[in-house]
Amino acid sequence: MEENFDLKIEAYLGGDMTPEEQKQFEEMMSQNPKLREEVQLANEVNHHLNDSAWMVIEADKNDPVKQELENYVKSDEAIVLKSKLRQVGANYKKKRSNSSSIKYIVGAVAAILIIALISNVFWNSRPSHDVLYTEFYIESDLPSIIKRGSENKLLTEAVALFKSNEYDQAIQLFEQYERETQGTDPSIYIYTGFSYLENGNFDRALQNFDKLLNSDSIDKSKAFWYKSLVYLKSDRIEECKTILSQIIDDSLFNAQKAKRLLGELE
């Protein structure tokens, strides 16, 4: 069957024809037994796909994977696959006249097709780097730099701006505090670094995390994890993998998370 007919069959069964197109197509079927047989087989294939495929992920009707699967089933690639499935059914029918056997073979191959479709969707649905960053960067895990009894209004305001996602203003106040305060807590570099990171200034983010790494802070080893997040968000994946491996090998801060993230990137 020509590819043009495959598209017409899908349009006919999917209700995507105009009334005039539908009338013309039905007249063609009445005069063409082979076309009529193709439509019957296509309807059988669609029955298995529509009734069986959705059962796999019916639990969540708003699942984006289900929507992606549905879009794929309706794609040109899937139409070609379903056309091949109809050919299998047609060839089998020539050898066996038992209609229940025909339905069995069509159903079996349809099940294989469903697995292929779902596998294709899931294989190509690995989390993006932005999604992974959102998963592994947890603001509440950052160490506190507001010490008990501290009344530094500048630092308090800077942290409040940071937590309100006002990163430009937060950077100004953090850096002002750093200039004006002797013996600055190196943890401030963490907040300044993430402020730059959230603003997309990856180089300045790395500079601040390097300041932390080169400090005498007890939190300095955390800089490796923070730098891995910079590399992740900036799509420098090989550098991200390298530093994650170092975290794992040396059992540094967030070694277990590093192992999970590295697994997602492999």
From TrEMBL:
The keyword Transmembrane applies. It comes from the Bacteria. TPR repeats lie at residues 186-219. It comes from Aquimarina spongiae. The chain crosses the membrane at residues 102-123. Keywords: Membrane, TPR repeat, Transmembrane, Transmembrane helix. This is Uncharacterized protein. InterPro entries: TPR-like_helical_dom_sf, TPR_rpt.
